[in-house]
Amino acid sequence: MSKSSSRQKMAYGLIVILVLSILVMALPKILPKKDTPVTPVVPAVSVDVPAFSGDSAFVYVKKQVDFGPRVPGSPAHKSCAAWLVASFKKYGLTVIEQPFKAKAYFGTLDAVNIIGQYKPELPNRILLCAHWDSRHIADKDTKDQDKPILGADDGASGVAVLLEMARILQQNPVEYGVDFICFDAEDLGDERTPSSDASIMAQSGGNTTETWCLGSQYWSQNLHKPGYKAHFGILFDMVGASGAKFPREGISMLKAPEFVNKIWAVAAELGFDDLFVNTPAGQITDDHYFVMRGTNIPTVDIIGMPKSPPMFGDHHHTHFDNLTIIDNDVLRKVGQVTATVIYRAAAQLR
Ligand code: 1BN
Ligand code: ZN
Predict the structure, then answer these.
(1) Angle at 308 between CA 304 and CA 312, to 5 degrees
(2) pLDDT tens track for 207-250
(3) What residue's CA is closest to ligand 1, atom 11?
(4) What architecture is domain 59-347?
């Protein structure tokens, strides 16, 4: 054998060994692992999910903000309540208004929870909620701290998601009940000092967190239907700001982990895991806490906490919480995840 042909044979041999070793290394990646489930975590039930319009939701935010700050007892609050009731009725919902006296740390105000029921006759139900009032002060601002805020994100964004969901349910009916609850007087709480009113301190057991979420506290003790139940609930709070992030809120993780996992898995499947991040966040004593305390309905708080470690955005409780902070695409993604969860839940009953 000549020297050159034996070199050629060696070279071929080396190439064959190289190709074989690449194949052996790549094989585990090509073939599914024995212990990896082939089915996704959330079985993707084959169902058509209608498109949730971020542009339509934005119009609902604008409409609310155009009334001015929706502080309980104010004329803007009254006008906005009438518009919310009319809007829910327009989308075919059966509406209950639940008036109550909100005992804030600085006085008592007229407040009203607004409940829109989609197919109230059906036993299988989902609860979707948000607060519709806006904060009476801008206590985190450097200017005009004593003036009320517009609450485009903190208030109006969550309600906008509810309204758009009601609209698409009317256009694409499902055999599943949905209750839309707009809680009032969520944002009258006292961040800094305990109440000087002894009766309020006594009522809250000295815990100032109970100066917040007065509407959900009232509703949980005075359910719009005795014994009201839903399979699960979702609370939307600050779901429209540009740059939003939704970490896994602590009370939701503690009390409704199965539903947090479902919602965040759907978000990941839709490619929105940049928004629905897997980071854990601290416990926020938001309306969902009082919903669960009164009803045991597992309820998840989708709440905007864009900073790291998870914290509210710079616009929180300032005058920067206006229409310019709202991003239609954030509203759209939150709404599309919610629509997917609802339409799949309904399909699973079929
Ligand atoms: C969320 C947005 N909240 C108020 N505005 C609820 C809240 C309650 C946040 C207590 C922090 C503490
Ligand atoms: Zn707030």
Answers:
(1) 35
(2) 678 899 999 999 999 999 999 999 999 999 999 999 999 999 99
(3) 284
(4) 3-Layer(aba) Sandwich (3.40)
